Amino acid sequence: MRYAIYTLGCKVNQYETQAMETILTGRGHTLTEFDAEADVYIINTCSVTAVSDKKCRNMIRRTKRAHPDALIAVCGCYAQAKPEEVAGLEVDLVAGTGDRMAFLDQVEQATLDRSTAAWVSVDNALKRHDFEVLPAGGLVGRTRAMLKVEDGCSNFCTYCIIPFTRGPVRSESIDAAVTQAKALAEAGYHEIVLTGIEISSWGQDLEGDVSLIDLLEALCHTVPALRVRLGSLEPRTITEDFCRRASALPNLCPHFHLSLQSGSNATLKRMNRKYTAERFLESCRLLRQYFDRPAITTDLICGFAGETEEEFAETLAMIETADFSAMHIFPYSRRSGTVADRMPDQLPNAVKDARCHQAAAVAAEMEQRYLERWVGETLPVLFEEEADGLWRGHAPNYVAVYAAGVDLHNVLKDVKITGLHGQALEGVIL
Q1: What CATH code is carried by the domain that includes residue 303?
Q2: What DSSP state is assigned to residue 125?
Q3: Mean pLDDT calculated for residue range 169-173
Q4: How far apart (Å, rounded) are the C-alpha atoms in residues 306 and 220?
Q5: Which of 31, 84, 353, 425 sits at 20 to 30 Å (Cα–Cα) from 372?
Q6: DSSP code string of 201-243
Q7: Which of 347, 344, 338 is nearest to 301 (CA)?
Q8: What is the pTM of this model?
Q9: What is the pLDDT of residue 112?
């Protein structure tokens, strides 16, 4: 069987895609490019925003038109949230975010027997209790491997549909995570990225008093030659104890993505976020106290329901105080079934977009300042691919670095930073 997979969405989806690739290839099937001819096309979907849903529908329709005789199988968050809507697009198989092994079994069976009607298998995510262990690894051509250590979220932010598509927090055990990390190191990877829907909640469902820092210490001590990078964190994860212990791990990347969403306490309360702007800034202060120029990045939602001009001004002032190295900025997207969707004072799209542009201008200035701080310094860079006539890789702080060289794919080199390369750095290999 020739198969192709298209992935929309976050690093968890990317992880699950590579796991499906590993499983199917291990069963003797052949992976091909998505625009090439295949027997089955798997589309791994996202549903974090209304735009995500639209992108998923467009990709399904496009694939159906381009390959009318092929098997079309859809999984992921959009399929979990709206299985009937996906089935209505005349696909062959619909599965959600659980039991990937059963889904792949069905894909194989359906390629042998196309006579059956569309297969739809979507459970109630809120009733899940067990972490589904899938093989860790990297997408084809990638130098960084992903290791999923957590699934689900129990925060129920008022704007978010993800708890309903992913279910409650489920954690991978330390022993299982360590075993996978060892295998990735032996496979030749130099870096792993810990992924999960809400990795700050790792360990909440496990026996014993364990938290994310315990997992980090176990991983970093077991594979000291492997760079360990964190995914998105809840700001309250960053405590004095966390920073003291984390800063003692030389192979932990000093890159911390703390989800902000708003710098206004009134807006944060309506969002049901569990921290204040002041607590967030304390997290930033602690990170800078314990780490040398850490990269602190964030997400921001502009134009949330009821967000006034004053609240947005508070947000702009707060992000400047936080001095982020990079930001992801999104207009608020209403999601059917969420509390925020039913809130009054919904803002026009034009207002949301204008505020996104304002925040982006501030973010660009902060990013420029952060990059300039590294000129003249030396950084260890894991190179990945050729781009712009140079080789491109990432430093531990996740800043992209360009340098001249030959055959540097998956090679670690020290680079003396000589200047900026757009929104990245450029240097000379030592």
Answers
A1: 3.80.30.20
A2: G
A3: 97
A4: 44
A5: 353
A6: GTTTTSSSS--HHHHHHHHHHH-TTSEEE--EE-GGG--HHHH
A7: 347
A8: 0.94
A9: 86
Dist CA 303 CA 225 (whole Å): 44
Domain interval for residue 402? 378-429
Average pLDDT over residues 234-242: 97
Closest CA to 147 of 99, 208, 218: 218
Domain count, the chain: 3
| Distance, CA of 311 to CA of 8 (rounded, Å) | 32
Residues 84, 154, single domain; the answer is no
| Cα end-to-end distance, the chain, whole Å | 46
- The predicted structure's pLDDT at residue 33: 95
| Mean pLDDT, residues 169-178 taken together | 97
CATH of the domain at 110: 3.40.50.12160
Residues 156 and 59 in one domain: no
pLDDT at residue number 140 = 58
Record the tokens describing residue 313, joined without a space: 């001004």
Contact in structure between 298 and 327 (CB atoms under 8 Å): yes
> Does 249 share its domain with 317?
yes
- pLDDT above 90 (res 119): no
Strands 30-31 and 2-7: parallel
φ/ψ (deg, to 5) at 85: -65, -40
Residue 104 shares a structural domain with residue 17: yes
Joined tokens for residue 128: 């899940």
Please report which confidence band the pLDDT of residue 117 belongs to, taking 50, 70 and 90 as the band edges. low
Residue 101, SS3 per DSSP: helix
CB 133 within 8 A of CB 92: no
Share of residues in the chain with pLDDT > 70 (%): 99
Q: Is the pLDDT of residue 225 over 70?
A: yes
Element (H, E) at 300: strand 295-302
Q: Tell me the C-alpha distance between 323 and 61, whole Å.
A: 42
Q: How far apart are CA 88 and CA 35, in angstroms?
A: 23
pLDDT recorded at residue 115: 67
Closest CA to 400 of 377, 427, 430, 373: 427
Tokens representing 95 are 């599965």
User: What is the mean pLDDT of the segment spanning 90-102?
Assistant: 94
**How far is Cα 19 from Cα 137, in angstroms, rounded to an integer?**
7
Tell me, yes or no, whether 159 and 177 share the same domain. yes
Q: List, for residues 130-168, the tens digit of each pLDDT value.
A: 999 998 877 656 788 999 999 999 999 999 999 999 999
**Beta bridge partners of residue 213, listed in sequence order:** none
Q: Are residues 192 and 289 in the same domain?
A: yes
The pLDDT, as a whole number, for residue 139 is 63
- Judge contact between 246 and 290, C-beta under 8 A: yes
Q: Which residue, of 372, 396, 412, is where some domain finishes?
A: 372
